[in-house]
Amino acid sequence: MSTDALFHMNITNVMYIIAAILFIVGLKQLGSPATARRGNRMSSLAMLVAVLATVVGNDIMSWEWILGGAIVGSAIGAFSARKVEMTSMPQLVAIFNGFGGAASAVIAAGELIRLIDDGATIAEDVSITIMASVIVGGVTLTGSFIAYGKLQGLVPTRPLLLPIRNVINVALLIGMIASTVWLVIDPSITAFLIAGGIALALGILVVIPIGGADMPVVIALLNSYSGIAGAATGFVLGNNMLIIAGSLVGASGLILTRIMTKAMNRSLANVMLGGFGVEDGASAGGEEETRPVTSIQADDAATMLAYAQSVIFVPGYGLAVAQAQHQVRELADLLKAKGISVRYAIHPVAGRMPGHMNVLLAEANVPYDELKDLDEINGEFQRTDVAVVIGANDVTNPSARTDTSSPIYGMPILNVDQAQSVIMMKRGMSSGFAGVQNELFFLDKTQMLFGDAKDSVEKITKEVKEL
Amino acid sequence: MFDAEALIIALTVFVLAIFIGYEVITKVPPTLHTPLMSGSNAISGIVIVGALLVAGQADGLVGQILGAIAVGLAMINVVGGFMVTDRMLKMFRRSGQK
């Protein structure tokens, strides 16, 4: 290697180290909402440094195609980032994950074609990593698109169970291993395409049996895959920058996956095997509920709130569906003006993806220091006068703490039942996703406020103003 | 391209990066988990580096087209991911802060 080329390579590697540091510090600054925005900028700077380092250190022969791809990609990215509704954030993340996976698979294809054209023998580790890259990338691509379809309502959200799906999955896995062995022994585009096709099919088959309500877990997992696909590409190209950044994303996705499964009281295997909610839904209709509940009207609810000293709102996804975030914040402002302490208790699965509810409330101008997670708020309920549950159900069910026979036993819940009184806003008496009746409804301290959440909150606000 | 020693170094980098990622990301509060996901989406756009290498070294038209597609897909992640994360983080305000 000429000294000039060596010099360029060293510059590139030093710049990669700088980029890696910036990525890590950027993620570290996501540790607090106060510094998070700076952290995100630092990460984007890291990306710029990494791209420049790559351009400096390598002879890029033709620019036209690269620039064309970059312009089109940037335009699509910028457009979707600007246009997306905050409620659709899970769909956006799902589809971006898919594109990331696709990029890894396409790079592996390009590298294989180049190596075959060169005519040199391809080392086993290179062919294996090429296969890893296309397989993880392919599964991520189609899996993410199915997840997107389910979230968007384009694909039925109920779990779709093929009768012989386990046989098909095993056959696909065997095909994947066989084509990998084939590629290692005799590098050919055919073996690569077979593995790629199998990966695409597997991505669909793995996600389609999973119910719509489990999509947050799937998205977190696919997020992790897109990182792992990137790291695998790093192994293909012998590039540490890709390995480091890919691993960071892979770790992030895995941590979020674990948080979500823990919050749902499920194991990852249980989510991935799918079918959850199919059997439960059938049995739930069997028992007719006859116990009485107390229901109130908006004016009584307004009186309860206006004369309280402390209020905790417990928002669930029903709140986002009703688009009632702004109305809730307005009511909260009114109560705060009366000197009442207002906080929000947010369960990890309150939205459609980890942290989704926090973003929806932040969009409605709720200050982040009023948003409390499970551990922070659970001790506070017993010192709280009124807890207002809006569009949440299973995550407030005290059976999870007490009833060992309940399917949700052991699930971490918000201890709403420990508040002095509870206002439960709900459309009707239907049970939640888990198909179990919520014991909270039947407590003496619980008042049911039936109707559309947005409507009810607006009425309460009006009544509070007039008090 | 790879010899055993280089593979070991790559594996070392991989394992250490996973540990750093784990340590740093467990400290991200639940409030920021959605921006964390979209932000890490953007970071997974690092495959742009691989896309540039493949596109830049391609001799044939097929290679160049594949490279361009990979660059485009990666740029959707990079530009879209960082922009949407910034859009979200901009909305997070402390009490009394305008």
In short:
The complex is a heterodimer of chains A (467) and B (98). Chain A is of the alpha/beta class.
Explained architecture:
Chain B: The chain crosses the membrane at residues 6-24, 36-55, 61-84. Chain B: Its EC number is 7.1.1.1. Chain B: One of its GO terms (biological process) is NADPH regeneration. The complex is a heterodimer of chains A (467) and B (98). Chain A has 467 residues and is α/β, with parallel strands linked by helices. Chain A has helices at residues 3-29, 36-57, 64-83, 89-118, 124-152, 165-185, 189-207, 215-237, 240-263, 268-273, 278-284, 298-306, 317-321, 325-337, 356-363, 374-377, 399-402, 453-466, and strands spanning 294-295, 310-315, 341-346, 371-373, 386-390, 421-426, 446-450. In chain A, strand 5 (386-390), helix 17 (399-402) and strand 6 form a beta-alpha-beta unit. In chain A, helix 5 (124-152) runs antiparallel to helix 8 and helix 6 (165-185) runs antiparallel to helix 7. Chain B has 98 residues and is mainly alpha-helical. Helices cover 78% and strands 0% of the residues of chain B. Chain B is built from four helices and no strands. In chain B, helix 2 runs antiparallel to helix 4 (61-91) and helix 3 packs antiparallel against helix 4. The longest helix of chain B has 31 residues, at 61-91. The mean pLDDT of chain B is 90. Classes of the chains: A alpha/beta (467), B mainly alpha (98). At the A-B interface, helix 1, helix 2, helix 3, helix 4 and helix 8 of A face helix 1, helix 2, helix 3 and helix 4 of B.
Rg of chain A to the nearest angstrom? 26 Å
What is the number of helices of chain B? 4
Structural category of chain A is alpha/beta
Distance between the termini of chain A: 83 Å
The major pleated sheet of chain B works out as: none
Order of strands across the widest beta sheet of chain A?
1-7-6-5-2-3-4
SSE inventory with pairings:
The complex is a heterodimer of chains A (about 475) and B (about 100).
Chain A: H1 3-29, H2 36-57, H3 64-83, H4 89-118, H5 124-152, H6 165-185, H7 189-207, H8 215-237, H9 240-263, H10 268-273, H11 278-284, E1 294-295, H12 298-306, E2 310-315, H13 317-321, H14 325-337, E3 341-346, H15 356-363, E4 371-373, H16 374-377, E5 386-390, H17 399-402, E6 421-426, E7 446-450, H18 453-466
Chain B: H1 4-25, H2 33-44, H3 47-57, H4 61-91
Helix pairs in contact in B: 2-4, 3-4
